Amino acid sequence: MNPQATWLDALPPSVARSAEVDVGTPIHLGGPSEPAVAFVRSGLVSLHTGRLSLGQAGPGELVGAECLAGEAQREFEAHVAAPSALVVLDPEGLTWVAEHEPVAARQLELSALGSLARRLAEVDHLIAEEAQLLVAEMPTGWAQSLPELGDPPAPEPGTGSGTAVSHGFEALASTLLARFAQFVRPVRLRQGETLVLEGEQGRCVYLMYAGRIDVVRALDPHGLVVRLARLGPEAIVGVGAAETGGRHSATATAVTPVRALRIDNEVWRTLTRLPSPEGTALRRAAVGSLARAYPAARDLVDSTDRRLRAAIHDRLYPDAH
């Protein structure tokens, strides 16, 4: 049993439903109209999409964590990989917790933050792995003629050639700067500057409120890259490394001028665990940012082979359309 989940014991059974499940049991958490989350108290849950594994959720993690941010779309399957004790909360239960149990609400948000950060790092690795397998099928030396693989996704509405701005994130950054000026720092990055570098130990998080970035993963040893995403404002960069204490799973580079709030990892972990309004706002912003990124990244895992083959075809036969 996960000793860090004692806060769940304070929740009434009508809000949090406990379940003991055996190996192989599928976990159904409802559809888009009635999303739910499952907190893993003990055991192991495997996540899949199509033929690919999306990793496993262990004690202290949330299955369906994106639902805390209102991202209800689910395109993965979950099965119990080891005898598990789960606690399931439906939308009404989540609302009740948010309104009546601030400690439990904070713990759920932190669990969602860590779970989504780990899932995204695993998905980044899977995308690169699939792309690497494709490159390995090509004739020796041929792949080096391609400067990069995969085209960036179309920018979100309002993020055209100008610098897109999120006024909500800008206000959050201003609040944090006013309250914790000695611990956070506003930064401006020029087009082409790197925010975080794949493989480097994480040192800070960027709360981005203006501009756009490309997120790419290297395909060693070919010197190629696969694009994982193009993100606009309301992206929080470096959360995965900050939450896991590990290295960055991808490189993020500014494709337009970027304005952001730089928060060192130790400060990030302190601020996101505060019970104050600022801590709550930062946690929810981070969960929302990761929740929006996860479905797109998860879908990219399933379509990497198709996307990369199309990109290669377009480069070989540019006049075919």
Describe the secondary structure blueprint for this structure.
Layout: E1 17-21, E2 37-49, E3 52-57, E4 62-63, E5 77-89, H1 91-100, H2 102-136, H3 167-179, E6 184-189, E7 194-196, E8 204-210, E9 213-219, E10 224-231, E11 236-237, H4 239-244, E12 251-254, E13 258-264, H5 265-271, H6 277-316
Antiparallel strand pairs: 1-5, 2-3, 2-4, 2-5, 6-13, 7-12, 8-11, 8-13, 9-10, 9-12
Radius of gyration: 20 Å
Q: What is the correct CATH architecture of the largest domain?
A: Sandwich
Q: Sheet with the most strands?
A: 5 strands, antiparallel
Strand content: 25-35%
Contiguous low-pLDDT stretches (5 residues minimum) are 150-161
Shape: globular
CATH class of the largest domain: Mainly Beta
Whole-number count of domains: 2
CATH fold description of the largest domain: Jelly Rolls
CATH homologous superfamily assignment of the largest domain:
Jelly Rolls
H/E series: EEEEEHHHEEEEEEHEEHH
Total strands: the figure is 13
The structural class is alpha+beta
Q: Which percent range fits the helix content?
A: 25-40%
User: So how many helices?
Assistant: 6
Distance N to C terminus? 58 Å
What features would you describe in this structure?
This protein has two domains: 3-100, Jelly Rolls; 122-316, Jelly Rolls, CATH 2.60.120. Residues 150-161 have low confidence and may be disordered. It has helices at 91-100, 102-136, 167-179, 239-244, 265-271, 277-316, and strands at 17-21, 37-49, 52-57, 62-63, 77-89, 184-189, 194-196, 204-210, 213-219, 224-231, 236-237, 251-254, 258-264. It is of the alpha+beta class.
